[in-house]
Amino acid sequence: MKYYIIAGEASGDLHASNLMKAIKAEDGKADFRFWGGDLMAEQGGSLVRHYRDLAFMGFAEVLLNLRTILKNISFCKIDLLRFQPDVLILVDYPGFNLRVAEFAKKKGLKVVYYISPQVWAWKQSRVRKIKRTVNKMLVILPFEKDFYKKYGMEVDFVGHPLLDALADEKPETRAHFLAANKLDDKPVVALLPGSRKQEVSKMLEIMLQLVDGFKEVQFVVAGVGFLPDTFYTKIIGDRPVKVLQNKTHAILRNADAALVTSGTATLETALIGVPEVVCYKGNWFSYQIAKRLIHVKYISLVNLIMDREVVMELIQDELNVARLKEELNKLLNDVQLKPQLENDYLELKEKLGKTGASHRAARIIVDFAKRNKQAAADFSPDSLCYAKASPPK
Asked: Is the pTM for the entire model greater than 0.85?
């Protein structure tokens, strides 16, 4: 069968690639066409657009790039009709994907949404559009099932795919990691400044201001592959900071603490077990709008899932050198904090459910596509003609 998948960010590329792998196990003739990244491309099929050309951060940035976004949506609609998939699979990325979903539904295409947009945080009115345009919603956070139920929408909770991605990895020893990457045998502080250019520039510049005050540790930046080394080294300058590309999980597995830009990375860091500070500082205009629209107590997935403050969040004006220094000192030196975090992280894993999310999602999607394809065949012109010619006795 034919699957058209749209993922617009690095995390979507990871989860969609694992989903594609699981779909191939269920459907040996799976034909993929997709918007995504390198991980999805490794699974085969045709890459239409890379997510590096789609990721715009914040309200102001979206407005400035609105023409490009609208051109991409227009092209996607044309491409979708040419491909005529058995099912359209949307992965988060709501600003783009909900527009495509509305178009697809009008054209009679079947729409599955895997990894719900964060409508519970803001724009809850979008639930009505989702209910109207999406045939099947698969959610990965435990509280989302109850959220959608309040709006009269039944969804499938499949568990979080990060658990699968981490379970499949074979961690190297710390000694090998340090030697292979020419690092000292000192405590490691991981810096995860995000994946979008604007985001990385802003967040990394802030994080790097701590380097001179922590001579006893080494800072390692988790770089994303589609941003060149030179992009990071230009920001780092002559500071003694290492950049490792496409090694986020390896860095985290060997880190003693982490400074993490809000997003899926905050959950990855917690599931690997690293003490972290969650950081966010956006464009002033974008932040003022978001502050008035967002309806949740926390910005990190860790705290949202636990429904209490497990990891420290430094947002906007709170994200400054003095507060960062204070919180990093706690992560590295507070002997009571680490065991408390270990217990909290264990509870977090239990809330997320068992591994196997990608395979559960794949079975639901393939079964859904098969049933709809069979239903369409049953009501094809040929079958209807046959039914008219041979009425039941």
From this structure: no
